[in-house]
Design goal:
alpha+beta, 13 helices
């Protein structure tokens, strides 16, 4: 420990033993006075050998406590007699507290965090207050980037309608412990939070926006914050713009039905864990998609877009909101039995990293190397996202004259592939066919119902999306796909599934007369089948965009690498071994709260 890191030091009592307590810029360290005297070091020298220590980056807060002196505890018994002739004295006790407790996070298993305390006793109240002030000042250091003022939005109608109770009983006490000033807003209607953040809320001295609710509430705050940031920077939100990242972080306290974003960024849907991530000032960048309809920007997305099954499910569930979260099971069953499929044309540009694929078995964890490298190179690798789409039809010639243009037709699932064999990842690839589901995810979308998520190896901040195409298939095959998705099992080996890691994609329903002629000629259909095909192509689905319905089927989606920051650090790898502390002396003993 360098001398410049030293802040304060004094003698205190800890667990009824005298200790030397030292505060540095990074740690709180203590050792018994006997070992200090034996080493012959001076009291103001930094400690090299110690009994225990706490990393300040994981300290939640500090508060005073009253520790009664042993001499002040008198046991009065009936048989006890006092000799009035013997003089006696009364011990004066300090008015203020002479002790303080330091609260720190501990891992409770399964990615859950909890808060525990360890206490110290000082010789007088002045020294106690000095310690409290010193520790609080050290925690406010810019290097920890902790929030000092937050705006908290509570959706009283989300999930099981317990958001207000969750906030007051579990979240607010931890914010108060960390000396965080809070402005509380209870939303009254849909998009209330978005409108406030976008238009009227004063964000001049706010360190973060917190939502106590579900993924829908987060989406509102995200869209409002990005809309406001682009407006303040005079950036027009078009189909080809590059958005400016906001300088305010967003936090989520899970109180919704699925809590996908919280589960994916922390590894668990737990109120206390998410609150502690906010208090400690954790920060992680996540990718954000801009969604365009008919070349017009409409909204941002961070979790998933689903056409076909997922879109039909959401549209049907919106008419059954009175059922609560059970409406998703009801609508999912209905749409599974319906087994609807839709004709469409998908164009996509592959990830710039040719080694990256949705099945590469490289998971995104805290400190992810893939996301770190993507952030460093996103300015160069994604700057070409403004390139215009390439429009070509079946049987067309190679527009570059390279001779690498190809056509491939899958007779069983009626899929037409159009693309290039070139290694240039900026070229467009096209798939034309009939699909039960077209899903795109920007994160793994883990949740309690499916811990692995829809795409287990999707990364939070690699500047890419995972595109999952489910071709027209039987109910049994689609059930197989759904079961494997829920369990995180392999799906790419199913011959009706395609999975690609892309940085942009477009979808167009095949509803025009020219599309009908192209399909009927390629499949050589009879007049009766052409009439049936005309009825099928006239039917379209809707898009499920982060739990909101987009009724226009023709869309374009672009990903923006780590556009926003969340109060999280990613899913910690529980199997990783971190040997930063000696097992015998650096583990403090905590007291029960």
């Amino acid at each position: 420990m360098a001398n410049r890191d030293f802040i304060f030091q004094s003698q205190v009592e800890h667990q009824n033993k005298s200790h030397i307590l030292t505060l540095t810029k990074w740690q709180l360290i203590w050792e018994t006075t006997s070992s200090q005297n034996a080493s012959g070091s001076h009291v103001t020298e930094p400690l090299l050998c110690h009994d225990a220590c706490l990393d300040l980056k994981e300290v939640v807060g500090v508060k005073p406590i009253k520790i009664p002196s042993k001499s002040s505890i008198v046991s009065l018994k009936k048989a006890h007699k006092v000799d009035e002739n013997v003089p006696y004295c009364i011990e004066m006790q300090p008015i203020g507290p002479v002790g303080f407790s330091v609260y720190v996070i501990t891992r409770a298993g399964g990615h859950k965090w909890r808060c525990k305390q360890t206490s110290f006793q000082c010789k007088d109240s002045n020294l106690c207050q000095q310690w409290i002030n010193m520790i609080k000042e050290a925690l406010r250091a810019p290097v920890f980037n902790r929030p000092q003022k937050l705006v908290v939005f509570v959706n009283p109608f989300s999930g099981k309608k317990k958001a207000v109770k969750i906030y007051r009983e579990k979240v607010l006490p931890l914010f108060e412990l960390a000396d965080i000033k809070v402005t509380l807003i209870e939303t009254q209607r849909q998009n209330h939070a978005r409108d406030l953040v976008k238009d009227s809320l004063d964000l001049s001295d706010v360190d973060g926006l917190i939502c106590v609710g579900g993924d829908g509430m987060f989406s509102e705050i995200l869209n409002g914050l990005l809309n406001r940031t682009e407006h303040d920077n005079e950036v027009e939100e078009t189909s080809s713009f590059d958005p400016v990242p906001p300088d305010i972080r967003i936090g989520i306290i899970p109180a919704g039905s699925t809590n996908t974003i919280v589960y994916t960024t922390t590894g668990v849907s737990d109120v206390i864990t998410s609150t502690l991530h906010i208090v400690l000032g954790d920060s992680i960048g996540i990718d954000v998609n801009s969604v365009n309809v008919d070349d017009q920007f409409i909204r941002y997305s961070v979790t998933m877009l689903g056409y076909g099954y997922m879109g039909d499910l959401l549209k049907d569930s919106d008419s059954n909101r009175w059922m609560g979260p059970k409406r998703y099971n009801w609508s999912g069953t209905k749409k599974f039995l319906a087994n609807n499929a839709y004709y469409g044309e998908i164009k996509y540009r592959l990830s710039s990293n040719s080694d990256s694929h949705p099945t590469d078995e490289v998971k995104c964890v805290a400190g992810c190397d893939v996301c770190y490298r993507a952030m460093e190179g996103c300015s160069s690798s994604l700057c070409d996202s403004k390139n215009e789409s390439v429009d070509f039809s079946a049987g067309g010639a190679d527009p570059e004259g390279s001779g690498k243009y190809y056509l491939q037709y899958n007779m069983r699932y009626r899929l037409l592939y159009i693309g290039f064999n070139a290694s240039n990842q900026d070229e467009w690839h096209t798939v034309i066919g009939k699909f039960v589901a077209v899903n795109m995810v920007t994160m793994s979308c883990s949740c309690d119902l499916s811990p692995p998520g829809m795409s287990p190896y999707c990364h939070l901040g690699d500047g890419c999306m995972d595109l999952i195409l489910v071709s027209d298939c039987s109910r049994i095959d689609f059930l197989k796909f759904l079961m494997r998705t829920a369990k995180g099992e392999e799906r790419h080996k199913l011959d009706f599934i395609q999975m690609h890691r892309v940085k942009e994609f477009t979808f167009r329903p095949l509803t025009e007369e020219s599309d009908l002629d192209s399909i009927s000629s390629s499949e050589q259909l009879s007049p009766s089948k052409i009439a049936k095909l005309r009825r099928q192509t006239s039917r379209t689905s809707v898009w499920n965009c982060d739990g909101e319905v987009i009724h226009h089927p023709k869309i374009n989606v672009r990903v923006h690498c780590q556009l926003v920051k969340l109060f999280a650090r990613g899913v910690e790898d529980l199997n990783a071994t971190v040997d930063q502390k000696c097992e015998t002396c650096c583990n403090p003993t905590f007291e029960k709260l």
